[in-house]
Write a structure and sequence with these properties.
By secondary structure, the protein is α/β, with parallel strands linked by helices. The chain contains 10 helices and 23 strands. It has helices at 13-40, 105-119, 149-168, 256-268, 307-325, 351-362, 372-383, 413-422, 444-449, 466-484, and strands at residues 47-54, 62-63, 70-71, 74-75, 80-87, 92-98, 126-130, 171-172, 174-181, 187-188, 198-199, 205-206, 220-227, 233-240, 252-253, 280-285, 291-292, 335-345, 389-399, 402-406, 410-411, 428-431, 440-441. Helix 2 (105-119) runs parallel beside helix 3, helix 4 (256-268) packs across helix 5 and helix 6 (351-362) crosses helix 7.
Length: 486
């Protein structure tokens, strides 16, 4: 086959000149279009990094989460601070969970300052929360457990280190999320009993036993995944509104199902353990102040230590893995953060209550309080010196179209569901026990019913209307984030 070209000599000079001008115009137009593309769509790089730091307490120190102190005798599984750092090119956010029942704001503030000094991440861009394992080291004085001062200093350093190491591991990434649903593990523990009088530790009668309390739970399981641009997992963050599971051996330290979930996700995602930086999975505690794993309407099985804990971890991980399969990733999203410090009133004991507490303690048979009345009498004497008001931090992060709110309390599930429903971001979820510890956060309606979560102690001392003031501020923060959205 031959190819013939039309001889140039058949074109007239004026026509050749016109063709030449048309060719130059086309080149100029293409150059202008290319320049416009570069100016209107500048290259944006999204980055993610993750890391862990070991925070396991020493044998011989304290485990809190019970009415009486427990001494660490053995380490069943190590406890960690787990951190993810995200960077959109302008804003960096750090999200950290720590395997503790709760932790003081003072220690978290120190850790944030240390991490900021090294990484430059703004303090208000760090969200740090306790998972609420009841078998971790003591980082707060609650009931008859007090923290070791050396352990508190150790925690500050290790928590800060987790942020620094995650920041050091920042690499180009993509991000996505989906929401799973696991209703079989969550039960509202404030439920209707036989209509008999229930005495509270202060000599009064609670109404919880004679009022119907709806079995309200939040089965939602939001899952955020961060990968390299080529699909290698960097980190995964999930959130579930389940208090804790428990069922450890005596005096044994464990991260509870939160830690087991993290290990199971590593197995499911087949992450290469030799890959550096390693994959990090973490599970934050949602609004589980009145939600646990005990079905009060069914039979309770007696299981060996850690059996139920592992079952729960496996079921939650399986649902998270299912949601993970549906995630659609984005190469870049914008990030932003807002927080506000508010002041809430404290339910202080009156003179009569203090005198009653003194008498109960005087009649106790040992320095370790044994009965419920003795334990709460001790709490009354400790609370009498509290200030009339306390400050606390409320916080909200925006990850593209997703929002995370943070409250430093054991938040009742009704509050979390309201925030999800009314938030301008879908999805939205709340992390409890974040940026400090201010006890339980029941609604005013639950305060009227009484019950353990409302009994005045260092574990529950905020004013009756605290939840309304908290949610009002949270919506203010979410609306502010909405206004900042590009």
């Amino acid at each position: 086959m031959s190819i013939s070209f039309f001889p140039i000599r058949h074109f007239s000079r004026p026509l050749l000149f016109c063709i030449f001008l048309l060719f130059l115009s086309t080149l100029r137009l293409n150059a202008q279009n290319n320049a416009g593309l570069i100016e209107s769509k500048p290259g944006k790089i999204f980055r993610g990094g993750a890391s862990i730091s070991n925070i396991t307490p020493k044998i011989g120190t304290s485990i809190n989460g019970n009415m009486k102190d427990i001494t660490v005798k053995q380490i069943h599984d190590e406890t960690y601070a787990r951190c993810i750092v995200l960077d959109d090119g302008q804003t960096r956010l750090a999200i950290l969970t720590v395997d503790l029942c709760m932790i003081y704001r003072e220690q978290l503030d120190e850790a944030k300052k240390r991490a900021h000094a090294i990484t430059g991440i703004p303090i208000e861009n760090m969200m740090m929360s306790a998972t609420h394992t009841h078998s971790g080291g003591t980082a707060c004085s609650v009931f008859q457990s007090d923290p070791d001062k050396d352990y508190l200093r150790f925690l500050v350093e290790r928590i800060a280190d987790a942020v620094v190491r995650a920041n050091n591991n920042l690499a180009p990434a993509r991000i996505g999320w989906d929401v799973g649903d696991e209703p079989t593990l969550v039960f509202n523990r404030r439920w209707r009993m036989n209509p008999v009088e229930i005495k509270n530790p202060f000599g009064g009668i609670d109404q919880l036993s004679t009022n119907q309390v709806k079995d309200i739970t939040d089965p939602g399981l939001p899952v955020i995944s961060i990968q390299t641009p080529y699909g290698h997992p960097i980190a995964l963050l999930a959130n579930y509104s389940l208090h804790y599971v428990g069922g450890t051996g005596p005096g044994e330290v464990s991260a509870d199902y939160f830690g087991m979930f993290a290990e199971r996700m590593k197995q499911l995602l087949q992450s290469d353990s030799n890959k550096y930086p390693p994959f990090v999975a973490m599970l934050s505690n949602g609004t589980s102040g009145n939600i646990n794993n005990v079905n009060n309407k069914g039979n309770r099985l007696s299981l060996p230590p850690y059996t139920r804990m592992q079952q729960v971890a496996n079921i939650v991980a399986a649902e998270a893995f299912k949601a993970y399969q549906n995630i659609k990733y984005q190469d870049w999203i914008s990030l932003s953060s807002v927080q506000k410090e508010i002041t809430l009133g404290v339910r202080l004991p009156d003179k009569k209550e203090i005198e009653r507490a003194k008498e109960i303690i005087a009649n106790a048979k040992s320095p370790i309080m044994d009965s419920r009345e003795e334990i709460y009498a001790r709490e009354t004497m400790l609370l009498k010196d509290y200030p009339k008001q306390v400050p606390l931090i409320l916080q909200a992060f925006r990850l593209g179209d997703l929002a995370i709110t943070a409250i430093p309390c054991e938040v009742f599930v009704e509050i979390g569901l309201e925030i999800k429903e009314k938030s301008p971001f879908k999805p939205t979820f709340t992390t409890s026990l974040a940026n400090g510890y201010n006890g339980y956060l029941p609604t005013p309606e639950h305060h009227k019913l009484g019950g353990y979560e409302t009994w005045r102690a260092r574990s529950s001392y905020l004013e009756v209307d605290a939840s309304n003031k908290v949610t009002e501020t949270v919506f203010e923060l979410l609306n502010k984030l909405k206004g900042m959205q590009p």
